[in-house]
What does this fold into?
Amino acid sequence: MIIKVELVKQIKEHFNLNIYETKVWIALLGKGVASAGEIAEISQVPRSRTYDVLESLEKRGFAVMKLGKPVKYIAVKPNVILEKLKTNAIKDADEKIEILAKLKETNEYAELQELYSVGIQPVRHEDISGAIKGKSTIYSHIRELLENATEEVIICTKAAELISKSRFYATIFERLKRANVKIKISLSGTDKEIKKINNKFKIDAKPLELDARFYISDKDQVLFGISKGGLPDEELAIWLNTPFFTSSLAFMFEQAIKGK
It folds into this structure.
């Protein structure tokens, strides 16, 4: 059995193993049941290290020690490993979210907020703008921009985006409605898609075949999406905190959808 170098590299990254663990696990999968000596020969991992590596894989659930003598190990099915890793990842994420949620209650967080407030006060209103990179960061900023609105939000995007991110927008729309914030939306897409969205979110989105994506909060701040497709980390948006420009854009938007 020849272990491919590229396979070792990919498995190592995907399953968070070191190089010896990867080679030993692949060798064990190829044999099904094997002794440390057999695994050492196939994997080309030094025999003195193979015992430790097999024990490590056993503790992590990648292998099972077979009862009896001589000592042999049984490979665990890859799909079982994958499900276990998914469960662990969800558990870790939930714990991390819980920790982050509690941060707002700490003195350290209060100090950070105070530092930001002190630092931002001398800055001119029109200077508070910037480029935002990465899909997840952009959506976080969209959420903050819209949910901080007190009077009105304007959304111009594709119907397909609202459909694909329905859970994200559902939460935002619910909060805006509870706060009595006016929601104005125009969507590019088919009549069927727009009708489906209006029924789902209980909104009144207007059709507008405009190849643009922007979000306006209280005619004060606007966020533009300026990239199409590509990798999530490469998506780019521009955030502007300029009331003069933003109110002008809002006016043009309202003229465009008037009568629709």
About this structure: Residues 220 and 243 are 4 Å apart (CA to CA).
